[in-house]
Amino acid sequence: MFWLTWRQHRWQLIAVAALVAVYCGYLLYTGFVVEQTLDACPSRDTVPRNPTTSCINAINSASETVNSAREVVIFGNLLPLAVGMFWGAPLIARELEQGTYRLAFTQSVSRRRWLAVKLGTLTAAAAILGLITGVVMTRAHSDFTPMLYATETFGDVRRFSQSGIVPTGTWTFALLLGASLGLLVRRSMVAVALTLVALPLVFVGLTMLRPHYLPPVERTLGSTDMIPDPSPVTSPLGWLYQMSYLDTAGNELDSQAAGEICADPANTYPTVECLRRTDLRQVIIYQPADRYVWFQLAETGLLLSASAALAVLTGRRISRHLN
Amino acid sequence: MINAVEASGVGRRYGRIWALRGCSVALPEGQVAALVGPNGAGKSTLLNLIAGLLRPSEGTLQRFGRPVSDRPEALARVGYMSQDTALYPTFTASELLRMGARLNPGWDDDWARERLTRLRLPANVPASNLSGGQRSQIALVLALAKRPRLLLLDEPLASLDPLARNDVMALLMQAVAETGMTVVLSSHIISDLVETCDWLVAINQGRVQVSGNIDELLDSHKLITGPREAVDTLPPRVSIVAQTITGRQASVLLRSGEHPIGPVWTVHRPTLDELVLNYLRQPEASVLPGPVAVAG
Fold it and tell me: Which terminus in chain A has less CB density within 10 A, N or C?
């Protein structure tokens, strides 16, 4: 069975592996360039207190490299589509379409085992490739984020799903969704098209669901501990959902309204000085940075559970209800 | 003797349409059975049901006394080759044999390779580049090399030229002679089957019309020809299967009996062709002759 799986899917496997290699190569290359550039600074982990001009220039240039690389990173989210479309969709659909299932299912191998080996092998391959992308993305593009004018992974729509263990789940799910759609519609091209539409919808849905995995934390901050306004959505603090202000009467104000109270000609937004002067308090709703791991686990778990459910349904249908 | 195939009341429905209904057949082991019937009669459906590729919508179906299943031991006993000989188009003959060897515990690789050489089939050409005849031969070698006890062939000869047809039949009959396996072979060309088969199953409009040993079937029928007016004078107890009237001539297929039928009739033993055609022409009137009562 393993030989058959390899023989039938080798070109798809090689093609997707090559895509992953190119993509990871690109990530590693930009990571390497950034690291080289940052050699001008004494440390790669924190911005020095009194940075030299060459260090400042290096940070600027490295930030530019990382930020332009992250335009490309959008396409990394399309890689699981390749797995769903080229591995998953034809897996069963092509056998039904070409009639070769009659050859496959009359060999001395039960349908359950046939499916288990095929899905098992390809799932393992997808999970490994996903894991490689996740690790490369994390290692090559997140380690030096604190130095740069770049966003953290937590809360970053582009990178969260490509970092850490989440891709393992994404890729596995893409494969199984393609395979089940193929069994359902029995036409490779239709299955490919449906996968191409369904997967992005699922990914968008996940992005919308993601902020709700855990209830966020609300904190009221004074002038001593306020965070800069404006603050990026993703920062070492964590994933910032919302920032607002409370006046002395307890009314909630947005940054702009609070800025008007401050009436500071130098700043449109409230500053530490303003909070000290006006007794405004800052309220933030956010996910603390240490929850990143839980969000990774939650999303991976969700994707893997859905994959397992699809695998069970596909297995049932193929061994009991096919034809 | 155990029956290789035993169907009782088997039916298969696609949506609202029954492709096969009320099919009861018992095929003793060791027979080479011809499954005949017009296109769309349900031959492929029956073969797919026996192969386990389809599930019956009603009735029970057994192979060698056990319900059809996809357990490896059950699959190992059955070989199947389909109408359009669906082989993986990019696989070469050599790769297909390799697949067979890896998926079938009883695989006879030496035999398969030897057949490939003897039939002068190119080992390293993708199946999609081979002729229909070559593909059929490879498909048959694949089905035979797993050493099945029951071989199901769905229109193996359709779309083959006479030469290829001859080669395929020769390959099949040699394997049957070597192993004594049971074969069910469907075809709508009856003349292909006369010399090779010893059992006949005729299906028409989704129902089994005839099932039995060919010699016994032919012995138990008479084909009589005579003037058309004489049809009305046939004794009422004679059991008529079908009659054809051409001009002034009538030709009537009867089930044999000791009833005198008069001197105007010329009596002879029907050929298989004549027997089958007469039955298929009368789908509603005919009944199942021969030993069709399903055992057990």
Answer: C
A199 and A57 fall within a common domain: yes
Residue A107: list chain B partners with CB under 8 A: 75, 99-100, 103-104, 146
Q: Name the residue range of residue A299's domain.
A: 2-213+292-321
User: For residues B266 and B227, is the Cβ–Cβ distance under 8 A?
Assistant: no
Cα–Cα distance list, B22 to A49, A211, B59, B228, B267 (Å): 90, 60, 8, 36, 34
| Same domain for A277 and A142 | no
- Do A29 and A67 fall into the same domain? yes
ipTM of predicted assembly, 2 dp:
0.86
Whether A103 and chain B come into contact, CB under 8 Å, resolves to: yes
| pLDDT tens per residue across span A27-58 | 999 888 888 888 888 777 677 777 788 888 88
Do A244 and A125 share a domain, yes or no?
no
Cβ-based contacts under 8 A for chains A and B: 75
Q: What is the pLDDT of residues B5-50, one digit of tens each?
A: 999 999 999 889 999 988 888 999 999 999 988 888 888 899 999 9
CB contact under 8 A, A99 and B86: yes
**Hey, are the CB atoms on A109 and B100 less than 8 Å from each other?**
no
Chain B environment of A111 (Cβ under 8 Å)? 70
CATH label, B3-213, candidates 3.40.50.720, 1.10.3630.10, 3.40.50.300, 3.40.190.10? 3.40.50.300
Find the closest chain B residue to A94 by CA distance.
B88
pLDDT of residue B99: 96
The count of domains in chain A is 2
Give pLDDT, residue B289. Answer: 45
Share of chain A above pLDDT 70, in %: 96
More confident residue, A197 or B132: A197
Work out the burial of residue B229: count CB atoms within 10 Å of its CB; fewer than 13 is exposed, 13-18 middle, 19 or more buried: exposed
The reported pLDDT for the residue numbered A204 is 94
Q: Which residue has the higher pLDDT, B284 or A84?
A: A84
Q: Count Cβ neighbours within 10 Å for each residue of B15-41 and write b for 16 or more, e otherwise.
A: eeebbbbebbbbbbebbbbbbbbeeeb
Interface check for A98 against chain B (CB to CB < 8 A): the answer is: yes
**DSSP conformation class of B39:** T
Q: Is B55 on the interface with A (CB under 8 A)?
A: yes
Same domain, A188 and A260: no
| Nearest residue of chain B to residue A96 (CA atoms) | B86
Is residue B15 within 8 angstroms of chain A, CB to CB? no
Q: Which amino acid is at B116?
A: L
pLDDT in tens, A128-171: 999 999 999 888 876 666 667 677 888 888 889 999 999 999 99
Three-state SS at B22: strand
Q: Do the strands B78-81 and B150-153 form a parallel or antiparallel pair, or are they unpaired?
A: parallel
